[in-house]
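stage 2 :: seqdesign
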C-alpha cells in the first residue's frame, strides 16, 4: 500500500449533529433539561448513539426566521417507535422490539411514565396530541440525549 493512501474503515464515522425544532409547549422543558427526548415522524436515517442533537425553536415565523438553540446534547438512545390503535385494546406503543398494550396496572404505568418523560401529563394526553398533529398510526423514531450544556 502506498503510504499516501488511507485505509478504508467500515462502520466508523464522525458524530453527526441532528438539528430538531421543538413546538412552543416544549421550549421550556427542553431548555430546563426536564425534557431529554423527542419522537419524530418518518425518517430514513436513525441517529446513532454518540451523535449530537441541537434542540432549537423558531424565533419568528417558521422557515422565515432564524432559530435559537434551546439545548445541545449527546444522543444516548435512538430507536424506531410506533403509536397505533388496537381494536378493543386502546392505543399500543412499540419501542423497537418492546410492545406495550394498555390494560394492566404495570402497562398503564409504563405508558404514563413514557408520556411524562416526553413532556405530557399522561399517555392519553400524548396520544391525543399525536393524533391531532400526525394522525394514528404514528410511525417514527425516538431520540434520547444527555445535555452537553449546563
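stage 2 :: out
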Amino acid at each position: 500500500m502506498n503510504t499516501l493512501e488511507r485505509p478504508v474503515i467500515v462502520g466508523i464515522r464522525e458524530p453527526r449533529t441532528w438539528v430538531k425544532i421543538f413546538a412552543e409547549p416544549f421550549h421550556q422543558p427542553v431548555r430546563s433539561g426536564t425534557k431529554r427526548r423527542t419522537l419524530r415522524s418518518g425518517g430514513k436515517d436513525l441517529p446513532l448513539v454518540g451523535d449530537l442533537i441541537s434542540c432549537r425553536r423558531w424565533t419568528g415565523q417558521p422557515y422565515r426566521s432564524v432559530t435559537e438553540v434551546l439545548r445541545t446534547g449527546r444522543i444516548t438512545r435512538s430507536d424506531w417507535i410506533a403509536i397505533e390503535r388496537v381494536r378493543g385494546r386502546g392505543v399500543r406503543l412499540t419501542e423497537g422490539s418492546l410492545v406495550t398494550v394498555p390494560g394492566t396496572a404495570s402497562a398503564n404505568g409504563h405508558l404514563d411514565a413514557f408520556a411524562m418523560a416526553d413532556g405530557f401529563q399522561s399517555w392519553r394526553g400524548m396520544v391525543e396530541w399525536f393524533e391531532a398533529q400526525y394522525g394514528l398510526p404514528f410511525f417514527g423514531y425516538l431520540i434520547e440525549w444527555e445535555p452537553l450544556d449546563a
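stage 3 :: structure notes
- The chain has a mean pLDDT of 87.
- Strands lie at 17-21, 37-41, 52-58, 67-86, 90-95, 98-100, 138-147.
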